[in-house]
């Protein structure tokens, strides 16, 4: 169910290209119609689409999660869940605290310059919930916003047929103090956050991963609001030499395959023996897992084992693919790290499985996918902050540079610009 390719780049890149073009254009018309419905009819359309795509029937008053629903969720989560969540919150918060940028200012001879950093006022967080519920994505999206100081954090996530949200997702929101949670998902939720409805006031920015409908909607509303990035279906690339354990490698490949039929799981290895063993292990372990159908589809279409001659070739492949997650299951991972240029998150050694990063190591699990790690970075505190330049010149300091400013304005033919300098010295001279 997972093919071995012998060093041929072409076959691999053709598959990846096909995957990255399973794309927006096929879904755009339907998503545009949904967004237009939300823009024109607000809550009425939101409730209609929630019924159509999620099977949940609400009145406008039932969209927002109530305090009773938050409290009830604590009774439903498994033993140990809240303690595990609190450890994850601690690690993720500590990691993101280090990303916080401060305002800075400099001054000399009547000139005061600086950069004032402020949080974005309101942010909408999309927490996926179609085929699985993601309490961990609540933490990954909200904690950097909290660290940044965002005042209004709004969370949306799709309800199940009976109109309920996952208790784990609700507990995660409650633990972080998020009060505004709405039971809507898909493109209609993105539309509600971007344009506002009678029940959901609009936000300034929308963040968070989701399926192709969510990603297409985020792209479409960019400009009405800001967005973080298009974090699409999950990906893993394991780069392994003969020191790797085939059981661990197979398990890590399967961990991402279970997210989505469009997820991609790749192994690049220098060892033919390992390639064969991983192939067998993948079959053996899949039989023991629950989300077999998704895994089998994802591996059939986007699972590959690539045999290469040496580690240099493997690294070149990895940099070209720019995966969301890159595991370096090699004897000397820290040496290989130096040559990695493009990856959302890099996991070193045989005991740093990707799911550790998904849940509680500390770094963010919202990462660039589909090769966009060549230019995008993981979701971070910076995504929730904006900067303003600060400029002060004294009368004397302006006098020193007035001629140069007027020459530059003149060169652009902008006499009103020149005049704004000139009037100050006509009056005072
Ligand atoms: N990068 C990350 O950090 C990260 C984290 C978690 C999940 N993910 C990814 O997020 C995705 C989650 O997808 P999901 O589907 O489970 O949840 P989702 O919440 O993204 O999507 C579910 C919604 O899609 C809409 N929808 C479904 N079928 C539709 C249709 N035919 N027409 C219109 N709308 C439709 C529905 O409104 C539904 O509420 C997966 O691809 C997973 O890999 C990524
Ligand atoms: N691996 C996903 C990002 O691609 C994140 C996640 C959440 N829960 C489990 N995994
Ligand atoms: Zn995952």
TrEMBL record:
Catalyzed chemical reaction(s): L-histidinol + 2 NAD(+) + H2O = L-histidine + 2 NADH + 3 H(+)
Gene coding for it: hisD
Pathway: Amino-acid biosynthesis; L-histidine biosynthesis; L-histidine from 5-phospho-alpha-D-ribose 1-diphosphate: step 9/9
Residue runs in coiled coils: none
Active-site residues per Swiss-Prot or TrEMBL entry: 324-325
Residues the entry annotates as binding substrate: 234, 256, 259, 325, 358, 412, 417
Family, per entry: Belongs to the histidinol dehydrogenase family.
Pfam families: Histidinol_dh (PF00815)
Function of the molecule: Catalyzes the sequential NAD-dependent oxidations of L-histidinol to L-histidinaldehyde and then to L-histidine.
CC cofactor: Zn(2+)
Any single biological process term in GO: L-histidine biosynthetic process
Gene Ontology MF annotations: histidinol dehydrogenase activity; NAD binding; zinc ion binding
Cofactor binding summary note: Binds 1 zinc ion per subunit.
Entry binding sites for NAD(+): 126, 188, 211
EC numbers, comma separated: 1.1.1.23
Record's GO cellular component terms: cytosol
InterPro entries found in the cross-reference section: Ald_DH/histidinol_DH, Histidinol_DH_CS, Histidinol_DH_monofunct, Hstdl_DH
Top EC class, one word: oxidoreductase
Organism of provenance: Clostridium aceticum
Listed name of the protein: Histidinol dehydrogenase
Keyword annotations: Amino-acid biosynthesis, Histidine biosynthesis, Metal-binding, NAD, Oxidoreductase, Zinc
Binding site for Zn(2+): 256, 259, 358, 417
